Each structure stands twice: as C-alpha cells, then as structure tokens.
C-alpha cells in the first residue's frame, strides 16, 4: 500500500497506479534538451533493412511459454508458423523504415509492477520495478534492429571502452577482474585506490529520447535507424498491472522500455558520455551500474581525482543534468583500498554531498571489501547455496519426492551457478606446491562452500547423515568440490586467454601472463599461472573455410608446410559403412593406411564413419616416432564442427573418444596443442590424399578392416 508525496496512505488501485506512474515515468525536463545546430559526423556504417533470413533467425530464438503480450499472441504462434508469416513480416518490417512509420498498436504495452527483492519497506513507490510486456510483432522487429546495432557497434567501436556489461564477448566478471587487477597493481607500487560507485534513479525510464537520438547521431549511427527509433519511442502508452488490477491507459513521455530487446544497447549509447568523461580515473560500466576507480600516492590524491570526474564542467554531475538522469546520492558507495592502512580512510567531499567510506560494497553481485579478502562474499555465497538446498529439501521426500536424477540436475543447474558466480574472482584453485605437503590458496573458503554440496548429495542419494562425503559424491556422480571449483576457474581462464585485442581486459591478461608476481597477486595472475594457460599459446583456427576455393588454397599451404598430413573419409556403399585414414609423411613415399568396417548401413551412418575416420587419423599419428606438426583433413563439415561442440549431440561418444585419443597423443609426443589442426577439404577436387582416403573407405565398406 504505497503512500503519496505527503505521506498519506493510498488504498484504492487507481490511486496506486497514478503514484506508480509518476515514479516510473518522470516527465522530461525543460533544461535537458540536446544542443541545436550540431554538425553530426558521417555514418560509421551503411544502413540495411531487416532481411527475411534475419527475421526467421530472430523468431526461431524466441522463448516458449513466456508471458503474453498485449496482442495476446504467444511466441509459439510465430515460431511454429514462421514459414507462413515470413512473406508478410518481411515487407511489413521493411516498410516501417521506407515509409518512416511505426504502427501505434505496436506502441501499447502492459507494464507489470514487481517488488524489488530484499527491500525493508514497500510503502514507497521506489521499492517497485516496472517490466514492460510489448507487442510481439514489434518486439520481433526490435530484436532485428538490436542485432544490427550491436554488431555494428562492436565492429566500429561506437561504445565507450569502459562499457563491459551487456555486450557480446563480455561478462560481469570481466569488470570485476579489471577492478581487482587495477587495485592490486596500485598496491604493488605502494599506492592506494579509491572506488566511487554511482547509482542512477530510474535509469531506463528517465532517459530522454531526444538526447538519446542526439548521442546516437554523434556516435555514427545512420540517420535511418535514428529516425526509426524516434518513431518507435514517440506516442507510447501503457497499462499498469498489479494485484489483478489493470489501470487506465497512461502516456509515456520519455524513457526506454525495460523488457524491450533494444533497451540495453540504447542505454549504452545514452550513458557512453558518462564513461568517456572520466579522464583521471578508470570508469567501469555495466549498463546503468558505474564505478570510478582512482589510484594515487594517498587518499587525498585519489579523492581529488574523483572530485574532478564528478564536479568539473564536463563531469558526471553535468552529464546528470543534461541527460535528466538524477543520481541517488544516498546510494553512492565509497571504498578506500590500502594494503597497509587498516582504517576505512577519509570521506569523499563532493560539491553536492559527502560520501562516507564503507568496509563492504556490493558491486555486480559480489561483496567487495576494502582489503579484497572476499571473506564476506564467501559467507554470502555459502548462505545462497544453503538457502537453495533448503528449498530443494521439500522436493526430496522419500515417498513423494522427485527422482534423484532431477535433484542432481537442480543442484548442478541452479545451486552451483548461483553459489560459484564469480568464483574465478573470489576463489583461488587449491594447489599443492612442489616439495610441500600442505595445500595452498583458498583452502578454507572452498572447504566451507563444500558443505553445500554435501547437503545436496544427501538429498540426491537419501543416505544417512553420517555417510562419508567421498562416498556421497561417488554415488551422486558429483565431482569433488575442489575439482568443481577447479573446473569453473579453468574454464574462466581459457576464456580470458581468447579475449580480442579490443576488449578492455586483453592487455591486463597479456601482462599478467608474462610473469608471476611475488606480492599482491590478482586473480588473473593466479588463474593463468595455476593452469599454465597463456594468450600466446591460444590460436583461433576456422576449421571450415567459407568456400571450396579457399579450402583448396588452405590445403596447398598445409602441403607446402612440410608437416605430417592425414586425410580421412567415410563411405556407405552396398549397405555397408566404412571409414579410412591415410597418412603422408614428408620425405617418405610410403602412404600409411587404416581402414575400419563399422557394419551395415541400417545401424550406422556416414556421419559416424566420418568421425571414426578422425579417430583413425589420431591412431596413425600415435604410431609415428616423432610428431612436430600435423594436419587432419576431412571432406565432411559436420564432423569437423562437431569437434568443437560442448553439448551432447548424436554420436557424441565418438567425439569423446577422439578428444581422449588427442590428449593421449599430446602426452606421447609432448607437442603443443596448436601444432595439431583439423580442417575441411572439399571432396572430389583432385586432392591426392582425399581421393586415396575415399578409395580406402569404399574398400572398408565391404568388410575389409585393417588388421
């Protein structure tokens, strides 16, 4: 039961809806208009309207069983009938650009009012969050435009470099890694750091459309897209829905719909100037969450830098006034981080307020403390894990509970991701150093969190509470918990090493990989050197060439390189399926052959034969005395692409066998991973090795396997 501006309780739903409307959709201010008579830069890319193929791909990605939009048409209708609807949707969507019109019926939305979790008082309107349910056809079109905008923004570097969240190839943990690495580097040079966390009131809903369009033009977005977005945002209306009540229709004068596919990319354009204005600090942005990091010899210097970023003529406060984005000054957070001083440090005096330092601040879901020990976050992660396991306990009754396999799936898919979120930041994999018996790194934290897995294993197996933990893990088919943490961190380390040069964390990863520092090691140092994974050892190879001509050129380069070449093939002839591999060794005229007859075609497929051919290729390589460089060529694209699959697929046990044999080959010959390559070669193009493999595969179909 919210209150109005004078503290009176409002009991009727219509009155509540008016209060919520005023809180959610503030009117545009008079002083926040964009500048006039501006010369915009030329477009950074050429505009292309949505194609039929793009529309079809977007529709196929729609989620099933989602809340109905105002037109009451579920996503399943479009997904199941896209072949019928596509000839109409394509011209309709393209007409919105050519005719410069956006149908008014697509601008009517339902705004569901939800409680923000964990708020102590729900009497105020700010304790509620609006979620927009948009017209389904309009949402499909918005998704197409979003796809184009995101791709071109990344390709042409249109967004602020500090924008890490909400972008492809970026995660929230990237921001945390960059934050921790910056602070630890400052400590290593006997400096201190201060972090100011900003909070914006109703960030999406207070955005000014005209200012947004101005920012997009200034950053090189074509006028066709900008005009389309203008028509999309003008004249919008909504109903507020809460407590089984639907309000009268309200007009939306400003803001970006939360729930629209465009919302993230549009707000990134909207507040890019805020991140670019931070000249003396490192600015990290995750959509509307912003952190300003300043380093210096003392806290006076860091606070001066933060004050400059906030209060100078082009600073954050001026951005707030120009963009009608009011800061929640009472929610500002300040961390003074020093490796030597135990105190919280001084307060930050800004022109508009004084920010008191705190010992802990929650940023992007992680509790950061002023010493970066992460002890409070470990306790927070333990609480989250135990809470979920206690919720599952109600489903694990002996008589009426769900099967143990479902309970295991719930633990792996729900509890583990929530508990081990950002584990690569706040946990360090357990390691036993050479010539030492004691285990090092985050031993106590990992043992503490392992209690959650033990409780889950008891629910999965139904065992007695006195059962040994190792026995529980074995019967529940769960990894030992420290190995589970190892798996999560190893995956994160591998991803960090593949970041492109344009990523803000790329240079930090490269520097951390060069040597292991003795003091104030960041999580990047710990991860890269624990697993011996370095960016220089990672090579991105496209296994399938875009065209046959390029594949043939690539094959000629491999032939001229002088390494071992293996060609594989699978065949189905006369109701028999067979596979083969032939090996060409430089300096030798002998061609080594392996054949394998899989069986009748009623039980086996050519695809399986192609994968078996790759397995045979590895067996041929294992027989060689020395392998420095080798390439395996197959004329089947599906089998090559399957080597990169992480999720189970048909015949995946053969892919697992292939990976097992490849690892055995690495151990046998101690070669670097980059020196073994799988690639595609087109068939029947007079490639000698491929033609020989095809011939041997046909022999194998008749039951002639190699001894």
In short:
Residues 560-702 form the RNase H type-1 domain. GO terms for molecular function: nucleic acid binding; RNA-directed DNA polymerase activity; RNA-DNA hybrid ribonuclease activity. The chain has 707 residues and is α+β, with helices and mostly antiparallel strands.
Explain what the structure shows:
The protein is α+β, with helices and mostly antiparallel strands and 707 residues long. The chain folds into 3 domains: 13-160 and 203-263, no CATH class; 375-537, no CATH class; 548-701, Nucleotidyltransferase, domain 5 (2-Layer Sandwich), CATH 3.30.420.10. Strands 1, 2, 4, 5 and 6 form a 5-stranded mixed β-sheet that branches. Strands 18-17-16-19-20 form a 5-stranded mixed β-sheet. A 4-stranded antiparallel β-sheet has the order 7-8-3-9.
Which features characterize this protein?
707 residues, alpha+beta, Nucleotidyltransferase, domain 5, 3 domains, RT_dom, RNaseH_domain, nucleotidyltransferase, nucleic acid binding
Separation, N- and C-terminal Cα atoms: 81 Å
Please report the number of helical segments.
Answer: 25
Form type: globular
Mean pLDDT figure: 86
Gyration radius from CA atoms, angstroms: 30 Å
Helix fraction, binned, reads: 40-55%
> Which structural class matches the secondary elements?
alpha+beta
Oligomer: single chain
Which sheet architecture does the biggest sheet show?
A: 5 strands, mixed
- The tally of strands reads 20
Number of domains: 3
Are there runs of 5+ residues with pLDDT below 50, and where? none
Give the amount of beta strand, in percent. 5-15%
């Amino acid at each position: 039961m919210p209150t109005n501006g004078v503290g009176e309780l409002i009991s009727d739903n219509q009155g509540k809806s008016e209060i919520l409307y005023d809180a959610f959709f503030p009117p545009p201010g008079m002083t926040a208009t964009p500048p006039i008579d501006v010369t915009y830069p030329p477009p950074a890319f050429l505009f292309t309207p949505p194609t039929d193929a793009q529309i079809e791909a977007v529709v196929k990605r729609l989620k099933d069983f989602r809340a109905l939009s105002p037109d009451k048409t579920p996503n399943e209708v479009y997904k199941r009938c896209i072949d019928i609807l596509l000839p109409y949707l394509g011209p309709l969507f393209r007409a919105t650009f050519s005719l410069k019109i956006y149908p008014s019926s697509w601008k009517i939305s339902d705004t569901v009012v939800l409680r923000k979790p964990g708020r102590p008082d729900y009497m105020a309107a700010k304790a509620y969050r609006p979620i927009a349910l948009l017209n389904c056809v309009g949402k499909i079109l918005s998704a197409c435009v979003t796809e184009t905008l995101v791709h071109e923004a990344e390709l042409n570097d249109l967004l602020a470099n500090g924008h890490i969240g909400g972008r492809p190839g970026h995660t929230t943990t990237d921001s945390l890694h960059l934050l921790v690495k910056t602070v630890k580097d400052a400590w290593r040079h006997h400096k201190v750091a201060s972090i100011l966390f900003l909070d914006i009131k109703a960030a999406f809903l207070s955005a000014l459309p005209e200012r947004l369009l101005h920012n997009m033009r200034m950053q090189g977005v074509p006028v066709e897209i900008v005009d389309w977005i203008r028509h999309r945002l003008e004249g919008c209306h909504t109903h507020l829905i809460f407590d089984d009540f639907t309000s009268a229709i309200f007009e939306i004068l400003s803001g970006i719909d939360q729930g629209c596919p465009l919302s993230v990319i549009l707000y990134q354009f909207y507040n890019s100037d805020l991140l670019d204005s931070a000249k003396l600090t490192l600015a990290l942005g995750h959509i509307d969450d912003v952190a300003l990091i300043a380093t210096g010899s003392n806290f006076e210097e860091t606070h001066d830098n933060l004050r400059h970023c906030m209060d100078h003529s082009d600073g954050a406060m001026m951005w707030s006034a120009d963009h009608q984005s009011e800061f929640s000054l009472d929610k500002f957070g300040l961390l003074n981080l020093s490796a030597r001083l135990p105190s919280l440090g001084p307060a930050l005096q800004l022109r508009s307020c004084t920010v008191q330092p705190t010992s802990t601040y929650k940023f992007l879901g992680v509790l950061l403390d002023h010493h970066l020990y992460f002890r409070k976050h470990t306790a927070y992660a333990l609480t989250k894990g135990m809470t979920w396991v206690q919720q599952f306990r109600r489903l694990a009754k002996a008589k009426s509970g769900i099967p143990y396999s479902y309970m295991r799936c719930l633990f792996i898919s729900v509890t583990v991701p929530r508990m081990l979120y950002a584990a690569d930041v706040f946990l360090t994999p357990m390691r036993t150093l050479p010539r030492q018996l004691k285990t090092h790194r985050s031993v106590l934290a990992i043992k503490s969190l392992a209690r959650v897995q033990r409780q889950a294993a008891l629910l999965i197996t139904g065992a007695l509470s006195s059962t040994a933990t190792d026995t529980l893990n074995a019967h529940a088919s769960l990894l030992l918990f420290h190995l589970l943490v190892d798996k999560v961190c190893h995956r994160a380390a591998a991803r960090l090493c593949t970041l492109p040069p344009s990523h803000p964390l790329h240079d930090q990863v490269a520097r951390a990989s060069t040597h292991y520092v003795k003091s104030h090691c960041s999580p990047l140092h710990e991860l890269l050197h624990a697993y011996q994974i370095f960016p220089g050892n990672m090579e991105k190879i496209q296994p399938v060439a875009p065209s046959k001509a390029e594949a043939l050129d690539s094959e000629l380069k491999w032939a001229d390189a002088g390494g071992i070449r293996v060609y594989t093939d699978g065949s189905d002839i006369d109701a028999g399926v067979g596979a083969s591999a032939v090996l060409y060794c430089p300096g030798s005229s002998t061609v080594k052959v392996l054949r394998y007859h899989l069986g009748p075609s009623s039980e086996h497929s050519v695809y399986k034969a192609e994968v078996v051919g790759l397995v045979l290729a590895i067996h041929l390589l294992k027989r060689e005395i020395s392998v420095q460089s080798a390439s395996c060529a197959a004329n089947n694209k599906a089998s090559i692409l399957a080597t990169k699959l992480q999720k189970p697929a048909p015949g995946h046990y053969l892919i697992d066998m292939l990976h097992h044999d490849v690892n055995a080959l690495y151990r046998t010959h101690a070669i670097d991973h980059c020196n073994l390559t799988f690639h595609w070669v087109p068939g029947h193009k007079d490639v000698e090795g491929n033609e020989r493999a095809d011939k041997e595969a046909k022999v194998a179909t008749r039951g002639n396997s190699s001894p």
